[in-house]
Design brief:
heterodimer, A: about 270 residues, two-stranded antiparallel ribbon, 9 helices, B: about 200 residues, alpha/beta, 6-stranded mixed sheet, 4-stranded antiparallel sheet
């Protein structure tokens, strides 16, 4: 297996394409140049940093360091979920629900893959555990954040319908069922769209990376299929946990709708 | 009998008894808290105080079971399905009430949006009446109706009252309050109620 080695200098020419985007923004007065510059610098620094962090983790192969890195990834992802919500849950739940559900879903399917199909030695080897977790987290995060966003927005919009059912003796689960279904559908949509388009419209990043690194395409495809199955499972599990957890938080033991618990983002 | 003691919600604080087969009219300026009071009795919002039905505390039973006995009907009912008959467990059983309140027999498969505001209000009342609740908490149930439909609703509720159903009927119409209520409660800005005999 061989690949074409890149030096930092080799990245200067491609980086000019981002400069071209900045020039376009200036010329067309899109006012995106500052955001573009910040995003580019952030991306470069974050990726270089993660490169060094992964190099360190791969060298020490420690379960403690691997677990710490995984927890940090989950916390960053939960922060991203909160940032994407127009309406938020109060207090610790705004972060806690997303983080808990991602840890449950992404953690479960990552462990499942490590212990059943990949079986690296040791099983927590960061070279396998962290990239797997990262890919599953990214997609699960999208599902959870969409599901929660639709849940809170639909409950505010459909309040009269939900409360009509409650007033007529419906349980909170009966009353919220149509909204829960909408929220779950929204959470599932991106991964289903992605599965439908993959290979025809898009070549996934991991597969492309493996092919560029010299892996046979059909072997890269097998890895990609494994990842897609894991992502689908993680997204389903995470979205279900987040949406049902959110529904429980937005109702109470007397089967009342508690929209007073939703905070609207500034 | 419905017993309400020191029921507190926001600025509201009320106590009263409602006998079986009695209708009390609830009046007061807009925004004074009539809807909040009715919703609190039905336990749809967090509240404090003691509410009993025939001596049984509402906390002694699951909230859905309480609301099947003590049912709140909003002035603008909500709809959880787009189709009229999906809101009824037995549409055929509801047809006598549907037609009695002037809605067409054929409206079962119609989309809710095809109904006018007044038709939706009457349909919401039919949906609530199908529960045969012990207590009805009616929040301006005829606010969108013409005089003929209002008379039909008043007559239908009067029948239920004569069969033992208790009713709290919120209305801005003084004449209607005197017609339907054996007592009239007037809610004041302090969240209390004063009782007037019609």
């Amino acid at each position: 297996m061989s690949y074409i080695h890149l030096a930092y200098g080799d990245l200067v020419l491609p980086a000019l394409l981002v400069v071209m985007d900045g020039a376009l923004s200036l010329a067309l007065r899109l006012k995106l140049e500052k955001q573009l510059a910040i995003a580019t610098v952030r991306m470069v620094l974050q990726l270089i940093l993660v490169g060094y962090v992964l190099t360190f983790l791969f060298a020490v192969v420690s379960p403690l360091w691997t677990a710490l890195a995984a927890v940090a990834m989950v916390l960053f992802a939960s922060r991203e979920i909160v940032a994407r919500q127009k309406r938020r849950l109060p207090g610790i739940w705004s972060y806690g629900l997303g983080a808990g559900c991602m840890l449950l879903a992404a953690g479960t399917v990552t462990m499942f893959a490590l212990l059943t199909e990949l079986r690296p030695d040791p099983w927590y080897h960061p070279r396998y555990a962290l990239p797997l977790l990262g890919m599953i987290l990214g997609n699960t995060m999208t599902g959870i954040s969409l599901g929660l966003d639709v849940l809170t927005n639909s409950l505010v919009r459909e309040r009269a319908a939900v409360e009509a059912c409650l007033a007529l003796g419906g349980t909170r689960y009966q009353a919220l069922l149509p909204v829960l279904r909408d929220a779950l559908r929204s959470g599932f949509t991106p991964i289903m769209n992605s599965m439908a388009a993959i290979g025809l419209v898009s070549l996934p990043g991991m597969m492309t990376g493996q092919i560029l690194a010299g892996v046979e395409p059909i072997d890269a495809v097998k890895y990609q299929l494994l990842i897609m199955f894991l992502i689908a499972g993680g997204t389903g599990l995470g979205t279900l946990a987040a949406v049902t957890g959110g529904a429980r938080l937005l109702t109470d033991h007397r089967h009342r709708l508690r929209l007073d618990r939703i905070l609207t983002a500034e | 009998m419905l017993t309400v003691r020191a029921l507190k919600r926001l600025h509201i604080s009320v106590s009263f008894d409602l006998q079986d087969g009695e209708c009390v009219a609830l009046q007061g300026p807009s925004g004074v808290g009539k809807t909040q009071l009715l919703r609190s009795i039905a336990d749809l919002d967090p509240n404090e105080g003691m509410v009993k039905l025939d001596g049984t505390l509402r906390e002694a039973m699951p909230a859905p079971a309480w609301r099947k006995r003590v049912t709140y009907l909003a002035a603008e009912p909500g709809w959880w399905s787009d189709i009229v008959q999906d809101h009824f467990s037995g549409w055929d059983d509801a047809l006598p009430l549907v037609t009695r309140l002037g809605l067409p027999r054929s409206c079962g498969p119609w989309p809710i949006q095809r109904l006018s505001t007044g038709e939706r209000q009457r349909l919401g009342l039919v949906r609530a009446l199908m529960l045969r609740s012990r207590v009805l908490l009616l929040d301006e149930p005829t606010s969108a109706l013409d005089s003929a439909s209002t008379a039909a609703v008043e007559s239908l509720i009067a029948e239920r009252i004569s069969n033992g159903t208790s009713v709290v009927w919120s209305t801005h119409d003084n004449a209607q309050a005197r017609r339907v209520g054996s007592r009239v409660f007037v809610m004041n800005a302090d969240g209390g109620i004063e009782e007037n005999r019609p």
